[in-house]
Design a protein that fits this description.
The protein has 368 residues and is an all-alpha fold. The chain has helices at 2-49, 66-95, 100-111, 124-143, 155-192, 198-211, 216-230, 235-257, 264-278, 286-291, 293-313, 334-359, and strands spanning 114-116, 119-121, 317-318, 331-332. A hairpin with a 2-residue loop joins strand 1 and strand 2.
Length: 368
């Protein structure tokens, strides 16, 4: 019994340590996500307001004046960097400066699309999360290798970064293709569900949209909805459109409703998430999910499932390959679209606050 208690204590200590590593990565990546999300949102808002649409009906800022195009370019650059920054600083939190090189390289590869069967897919946010932890462990293992005194000064600045970068880089490259094939299989699975229950399909789409918040699972569901638009089936994209904005809006709402359950940094991220959710940028939820994936991800999946199911039941149809309230002008059954989003967001907010209430102590006193 005593041995079992020691094992439980050790496991708890490891979980606490790894959560702190994740929080380190999140603290550095939040500005990148906020910057990228808000700038992309601004360019999309401009495009929608001035009816700058592509041939599929989606807002297209590249048709706008040069400053709108450059706002989009800068926003996309910030978003492109965030997997590398997340993985790099998770590894840094574990292993110090020597962890930066393999973490950044592993995260960059995780966020780089791989062409498989004519489709670009990547490991995305969750891949960066995992490879950041792997990079930290690899560097810490290399630090323990005994070396002669004469070589010690160059170990942290040359030897360890090179060796760890090779190990982590090859590992991520090796994993990218199998991961890509998994997501292609998911796409075939969705196609096979078209002839079955539309409610079940909506629930699956909602869960996939929220699972990795702009990552490959999310993109699989999203592009399936886009493909259905081309077949004049707008209900699939309607379900996706409601689910897309639910995680950031729901978590942002949660920080407003249960302020004492969230840190000041999280409340600030919540405000940014609300703004991103309004224009259909699911990535606004990533800072919350990255710092507490075991609780946040299941909750936002549940909330998005509620939103997508209500949208499907309400016969919501989205004629544009985008989501969130910004696409309201091109949505069929507008009232039900709003109801679906509000329902999913409220369910998300209440559920995550209840989960936090019963699993942790308040972090700060509520602001008056």
């Amino acid at each position: 019994m005593r041995k079992l208690n020691k094992i439980k204590k050790r496991v708890n200590e490891l979980l606490v340590k790894h959560k702190q590593y994740l929080l380190t990565g999140v603290s550095y990546v939040i500005p990148f996500i906020a910057c990228g999300g808000i700038l992309i949102a601004l360019s999309l808002t401009y495009a929608f307001h001035f009816h700058l649409l592509n041939d599929k009906g989606a807002p297209d800022p590249t048709q706008g004046p040069w400053f709108v195009q450059n706002i989009l370019t800068i926003g996309v650059a910030a978003f492109t960097l965030f997997p590398a920054v997340l993985a790099g600083f998770i590894s840094y939190g574990m292993a110090g400066k020597p962890g930066l090189v393999p973490g950044f390289i592993g995260g960059f590869i995780a966020g780089t699309p791989q062409l498989v069967e004519g489709k670009n897919v990547s490991a995305g946010f969750l891949g960066a999360l995992v490879i950041g932890l792997v990079a930290g462990h690899v560097v810490n293992a290399l630090k323990k290798i005994p070396v002669a005194t004469i070589f010690r000064p160059i170990m942290p600045i040359i030897v360890i970064p090179i060796l760890s970068a090779l190990i982590v880089g090859f590992l991520m490259l090796a994993l990218n293709i199998p991961i890509a094939r998994v997501f292609l299989a998911l796409n075939h699975f969705l196609e096979s569900m078209q002839s079955g229950s539309q409610i079940v399909l909506a629930m699956v789409l909602g869960a996939m949209i929220a699972f990795d918040m702009g990552g490959p699972v999310n993109k699989t569901a999203f592009f399936f909805g886009v493909a259905m638009i081309q077949q004049n089936n707008f209900a699939i994209m309607g379900a996706c459109a409601a689910a897309i904005c639910t995680p950031p809006i729901g978590l942002g709402l949660a920080t407003l409703l249960g302020r004492k359950r969230w840190t000041e940094e999280q409340r600030e991220s919540g405000l940014a998430a609300l703004g991103m959710g309004m224009v259909g940028v699911t990535e606004g939820a990533i800072p919350f999910a990255a710092s507490d994936p075991l609780r946040v991800i299941p909750v936002i999946m549940f909330g998005s499932m509620v939103a997508s199911t209500i949208a499907m039941l309400g016969k919501v149809g989205d004629h544009a390959p985008h989501g969130g309230p910004i696409v309201l002008p091109v949505v069929d059954q507008k009232l039900m679209f709003i109801v679906a989003i509000l329902s999913g967001a409220i369910v998300t907010a209440i559920t995550i606050n209840l989960v936090k209430k019963f699993t942790e102590k308040p972090v700060v006193a509520a602001a008056k």
